[in-house]
Amino acid sequence: MKTGKAYKFWFCTGSQDLYGDECLRNVAEHSKKIVEAFNASGIIPYEIVWKPTLITNELIRKTFNEANADEECAGVITWMHTFSPAKSWILGLQEFRKPLLHLHTQFNQEIPYDTIDMDFMNENQSAHGDREYGHIVTRMGIERKVVVGHWSDEKVQEKIASWMGTAIGIMESSHIRVMRIADNMRNVAVTEGDKVEAQIKFGWEIDAYPVNEIAEAVAAVSEADTNTLVEEYYDKYQILLEGRDEAEFRKHVAVQAQIEIGFERFLEEKNYQAIVTHFGDLGALKQLPGLAIQRLMEKGYGFGGEGDWKTAAMVRLMKIMTAGKKDAKGTSFMEDYTYNLVPGKEGILQAHMLEVCPTIADGPISIKVNPLSMGDREDPARLVFTAKTGPAIATSLIDLGNRFRLIINSVDCKKTEAPMPKLPVATAFWTPQPDLATGAEAWILAGGAHHTAFTYDLTAEQMGDWAAAMGIEAVYIDNETTIRSLKNELRWNSVYYR
């Protein structure tokens, strides 16, 4: 999946010149060793670039503006090795426009009890310098991530790596462009929203196109190209005829192949990374895009059903944030459908009419062709599978009229108690934390949608950090949630974010 940039992160160390040249040489050497260790760790996913020690207003301001101008720089990691007077950082911080991480560490892990003297104290005073720096960042109201601990600790490195994924999401958010094919589903509230405010807050461009304009691109796909992709489908997936004529089945599959090629060409030509469709306005399309959309999501495109552009953009964002993640389990558009309320087996069956991303599949993936009552078109082909088990998060970005809210629910994905042979869609089954009753009540109180952007590969903390960087409210629903505390939080937030 293309993110467009080979991102790097800058490492900037703060100090000052009161302690002499030898001290500054040691500061530089120590910070270089930290950067070298990070880059060799196998944990940090992006290259960290060492920068000379920052000791003056002019150099700090110049460095931050160079970071702003460098398209490969996705953020800056700052660390105060010694005491760095915080007023020196004001102008640079005022002009900085990228993600910021404050690493609160020190070069030595243990106090050298037998040899420590005032020279050592003066040189190794991150506990002092980082508090001075932290004060000014707080006073200026600048959003940043703070990571505390020794730089050699794998947990510290993992926190930095996690923040890097969020930073990429912050940087790439302003490059997300959503193509709306037709409009929002009539009379549906939660999938609507202020597209202008979304561009102001997140940088997203959300544009509408007539359905027949993209249908023309589909019709222009050659039979040869379509047949080549159909052969790829037949090689990659199990074919479940289930009594249908093989030639007729293949024709239905070919329609989806033609849609996939036509949609992707149109998206690439117009430079969009996410798309929404609506079963109520299919124009000249022969089928509701199903298998085609599933494949596009697998390639990294965002998607939202029934005109849900917010979820489409969030799916794209979360796919960017997880791109290249080792042992990734997948990210998808999802929808709440029906409950299992049997005591001890509670959960929510997740699916959609057709469009669930195969990156979350566990086990074989099959192609089925089945009728669909919505859309009034041919029986669409779709990929059918069950989702992986394990911890995940489901997110819902909603527009409350005067502000956006991101709801983040930690969920536990499970297998259903029994197979569902008559349900011809991809499915997931999860229990929201802390339990179904509390989680569902909290979701409803927070105003969460029935559509979600779902992933196994990001944490609630990462998505909350993204929301903070965007200046919007984040509501967490997890094992710590109680309805009393959630209601109070929502009340307080309504005052803070108005």
Characterization of this structure:
It is a single chain. The chain is of the alpha/beta class. The protein is built from 15 helices and 19 strands. The strands form 4 sheets. The chain has a 6-stranded antiparallel barrel. Strands 2-1-3-4-5 form a 5-stranded parallel β-sheet, sandwiched between helices. Strand 15 and strand 16 form a beta hairpin. Helix 13 runs parallel beside helix 15. The radius of gyration is 25 Å and the shape is elongated. The model has no long low-confidence stretch (mean pLDDT 95).
Distance between the termini: 37 Å
Kindly state the number of beta strands: 19
Q: Could you tell me the radius of gyration in angstroms?
A: 25 Å
Shape: elongated
Proportion of residues in extended strands: 15-25%
> Mean pLDDT across all residues, rounded?
95
How many DSSP helices?
15
Described by strand count, sense and barrel closure, the largest sheet is: 6 strands, antiparallel, barrel
Q: Which regions contain 5 or more consecutive residues with pLDDT less than 50?
A: none
Write a concise synopsis of the structure shown.
With 498 residues, the chain is an alpha/beta fold. It has helices at residues 21-40, 57-69, 90-95, 118-123, 126-139, 154-173, 195-202, 211-219, 223-236, 246-270, 291-298, 309-322, 436-446, 460-470, 483-496, and strands at residues 8-14, 47-50, 73-80, 100-104, 145-148, 177-181, 205-209, 238-239, 274-276, 302-304, 331-340, 347-351, 366-369, 381-384, 390-399, 404-414, 428-432, 451-455, 473-477.
